[in-house]
Write a structure and sequence with these properties.
single chain, Arc Repressor Mutant, subunit A, Tetracycline Repressor, domain 2, mainly alpha, 212 residues, globular, 75% helix
Length: 212
């Protein structure tokens, strides 16, 4: 009985790693297919075949083809939640956001020129825009609930929603700015420099008051 109890967490850890590896493999295969054959020319069945998984397995990880573009969805949400909720008690929210947003920019900008990430050729499609908006709303809802749990009666639900949506918008601006820069043919250095300036300006307004 003791051995069975001890082995359960190990088995769960192994399953989680395998699921993560499968998700990453599918996303990488899809990115390569989109790049080589064009997003509109690829079907879900093509991705499943190339990734050596069943169509049902593919849909379990990615409900639609559009969701394959944003293969870092879960990591994106976890990153934002971690910056806000796990900051040191003496660290203000704006200070944590400033450092976290810059770190996120440096990290995500490394995807420029790589197979994974958001292919610039499809970043402006209406279907992808819809999925992107839905994702940001979901992340904001998750952050709002986390803020309500953390602060309790000291914050209203309306205030938590407003704060959460504003915070998620900062990171969305980074992602969108990166995609727009790639489409415009800018270098990684130029994109990062411009977005760093934007981040500083946005957080100055958050900290000192909004200015038109």
């Amino acid at each position: 009985m003791i051995l069975a109890i001890q082995s359960q967490p190990l088995a769960e850890g192994l399953r989680a790693r395998k699921k993560k590896q499968t998700r990453q493999r599918i996303a990488a295969v899809a990115a390569q297919l989109f790049k080589s054959r064009g997003y509109e020319n690829i079907r879900m069945v093509d991705i499943a075949h190339e990734a050596d998984v069943s169509e049902q397995t593919l849909y379990n990880y990615f409900p639609t083809k559009e969701h394959l573009i944003f293969d870092m969805d879960q990591e994106f949400e976890a990153k934002i939640l971690g910056i806000v909720i796990n900051r040191a008690p003496e660290t203000s929210l704006t200070t944590a956001l400033r450092a976290g947003a810059i770190d996120f920019l440096n990290e995500i900008s490394r995807s420029v020129g790589k197979q994974t990430g958001v292919p610039s050729a499809v970043a402006t499609g209406p279907e992808l825009r819809r999925v992107w908006i839905e994702m940001n709303a979901r992340h904001a809802d998750a952050l709002a609930e986390a803020l309500l749990r953390e602060r309790g009666a000291s914050i209203s639900r309306a205030s938590a929603k407003f704060l959460a949506r504003s915070i998620v918008a900062i990171f969305a601006v980074i992602m969108e700015g990166l995609g727009e820069g790639m489409i415009a043919g800018k270098t990684r250095t130029a994109i990062v420099k411009g977005l760093r300036s934007d981040i500083e300006s946005i957080l100055d307004q958050v900290e000192h008051g909004f200015r038109p």
